[in-house]
Amino acid sequence: MSGKLGLNGSKISLILLVIVATILALVGYRQAPAAVVTERHFFENSGGAVVFDHQQHADVTEGCESCHHHLVRGEQYTECLDCHDDSYSAADFTHTELLEIKDHECNYCHELHEDRSPQTCRQCHAPVQDASPPTLNCSECHDFEADDAYIVDLDLSHEDLLDIHEEDCSTCHQPQSISAAYHLQCISCHEQKAAMIFGKNAAEWDCQACHLK
Question: Which of 160-165's residues contact partners 24+ apart within 8 Å by CB, and which partners?
Answer without folding.
Answer: 162/73, 162/74, 162/75, 163/75
